[in-house]
């Protein structure tokens, strides 16, 4: 169950980072509220995930999911552009996240 919480943490990391940008400096109320809800769910799920997972495993997975998710949202929603070399490093990050999961005893 801790890994499911960790996945939720990562997803809501992307949600709150995206809605924070869409809030235009917290000047759009709906996105501002969505940001706060996303932060609460993300951190609340992190608390639940770290009940059974060590912080040294949970934190890199959380930030990795958030980083990759934010890159994808940036490309799809905000039309960010990256070089092919950058995408190689994003792929390496995904492989690293999977590797951490596969090599832990949890």
Automatic annotation (TrEMBL):
Assigned keywords, A-Z: Cell membrane, Membrane, Transmembrane, Transmembrane helix, Transport
UniProt-annotated location(s): Cell membrane
Chief subcellular location: membrane
InterPro entries from the UniProt entry: EmrE-like, Small_drug/metabolite_transptr, Small_multidrug_res
Segments passing through the bilayer: 27-50, 57-78, 84-103
Similarity section: Belongs to the drug/metabolite transporter (DMT) superfamily. Small multidrug resistance (SMR) (TC 2.A.7.1) family.
Name of the protein described by the UniProt record: Multidrug efflux SMR transporter
